[in-house]
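Q: Here's a chain of 311 amino acids. Please give me its 3D structure as tokens.
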Amino acid sequence: MRYRPFGNSGQSVSALTLGLSYRDIAHGPDACSAIIYAALEAGINSYRLRDASPVLAEVLGNALKHVDRKLVQVSLTLGAGDGRRGTDRDFSAQGMTACIDKALHASALGWFDQVFLDQPGTDELPQSSLNALKAMRATQRVRLLGISGDGEVMDTYVSTGAFDVLVTPVHVNSPWQVRSRLRAAREQDMTIFAYGYFPESLDTAKKAERIAGEDAPAKRGLFGFGKPAGRAKNDPLRGAGTFAFLHRTPGWTAEDICLAYVLTDPSIASVTIHAEDVERLEILARVPDRDLPPGLAAQIEMARVATAKAA
């Protein structure tokens, strides 16, 4: 595992963050604990509770109780409920304070290194709530405040300067708006965490080839004539200028390439992964130690340019 500077704190964070949610304890606490232990053995020191489930917080706290608390970083996501169906988004001062208190009590972790707000709308986060979080930060129960999500509202929150951490989806085909957001966050000295490195639009060879590719439906003219659908399946140039190569690179899976590519950005402190079992965790944990094959970064950029032209 490789480690990166965590903002200006002087601390280091593992290149990968293990994301945990309520569904990870669906098969029982022991199965979830096994994944956490495997992450520790792989050198991962960053853990993100993607919802405010006290049960999940307790499982994580028990797994980390034999580790020096100062050597691991744990973050809590607020506003996403406790992971169960029907739970409401709650960004009130009272609601968020209660979530933090319950999670801290259940986990016995003492403090949360970061608390992330799950993309609150412009009318969902009153000033009183932000003041409550700042008060908890002042008492060291919460060390840093972050904002998580996608969409235009994220740009507004970044510009306020009220948050220390930005958590946003980043992948090989991220639009210019995301790249602009990352630049703005760096200018605000925010620490950046990434997630969503392997979007559904790229998770199969067929989808990857259709992005700005020749295999996309042809545009028809007024009388129904148009460009042919694309190259033959056995044509060696089939998929050129698309992301099809992600699924054709020997020794690499498409997900591994996408994860490794995001990790090439030095401004990103850590990338959040999810593993439903120990085997998958171990596979993903090996990616930070691998270098992308020569020429692959150039292929990604060419596919990005082709996508931008087609948009």
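Q: Can you summarize the key feature?
A: The CA atoms of residues 78 and 117 lie 5 Å apart.
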